[in-house]
Amino acid sequence: MGGFDCVYDGTLAVGYANALYSQRGYELCHSPDLTEMRKKFLQEKIGYCKNKISEMEKLFNDFIENHNEIGGRQSAPHYDTMVILGTLKSRLDSRLNTAMEYAENNKFSRIVITGGFNGSFSESGYMEEKLLERGISPSLIVAESRARDTLGNAIFSADIFADHSHSVLVVTSCYHAPRAHCLFRKVLPQHIGLTTAMSKKPEEMRYLEQNRRSVINDEMRALNKAIRNIVGYSEPGGMTLQHFHRKLLREHDLYKE
Residue 43: how many CB atoms within 10 A of its CB? Predict the structure, then answer.
């Protein structure tokens, strides 16, 4: 992963979010009553935050543009499980196309499709329909429809395969891959090898190019929130899957009953 190793413990996301929030906070502190020394101090802090944000955005952009995967297969000869993450219908086809490219070269034991509903649109239902149309055997497809966000994708899909898998491939969009990989690595038992494939189809890259700043902001904030509120800052493997499951249902706003 090179320079993107820090995404594993959320350092990048936390640092980015803190710099972004701090910059805005410092900018709001300007007042005609401030002393010159205080103004200089605030200007230096704003400059520091802007530089930090620029550095992190460059790292994010360079990584996405120069890589196709995060992680590696470790000692496993092939992936036994593929997990395809749901999203808006307009971006699902590119993820499915990437998934099919991997399916041609790997004999998966199961393909987990994880995603809930966007309005009346069923993400997992749509993915299952398209995979069947492309010749994937119904016996390989396992649908998971409880997830409402990326953390839910990781926890609920892990419920399905964690006891039976040794090497997992997660397929998602290029800009979403760092966050997804971090959360899956946090949730999965450490004996399971994890690789995250980045869909870089033309429509994905166009979306990223048109919305680059807002996409990076959203991804970093979401990862920061998940780590701060649910996953925690401990090393991967520090908590069990059952612990994450209980915490998600008890503390996450999208899953509280």
Answer: 13
Q: Which residues contact 225 (CB under 8 A, 6 or more apart)?
A: none
Q: Are 153 and 203 contacting, i.e. CB atoms less than 8 angstroms apart?
A: no
Strands 121-122 and 117-118, bridge-based pairing: antiparallel
Residues (pLDDT < 50) of the chain are: 1-9, 74-76
Q: Token pair of 183, please?
A: 């959360």
Separation of alpha carbons 195 and 204, rounded Å: 19
DSSP states along the chain: -GGGGGGGGTHHHHHHHHHHHHHHHHHHT--TTS-HHHHHHHHHHHHHHHHHHHHHHHHHHHHHHH-SEEE--TT-SS-SEEEEE---HHHHHHHHHHHHHHHTT---SEEEEE--EETTEEHHHHHHHHHHHTT--GGGEEEE----SHHHHHHHHHHHHTTT-SEEEEEEEGGGHHHHHHHHHHHS-TTSEEEEEEE--HHHHHHHHHTHHHHHHHHHHHHHHHIIIII-SSPTTSS-HHHHHHHHHHH-TTT--
pTM > 0.90: yes or no: no
d(CA 124, CA 115): 5
> What is the pLDDT, as a whole number, of residue 100?
94
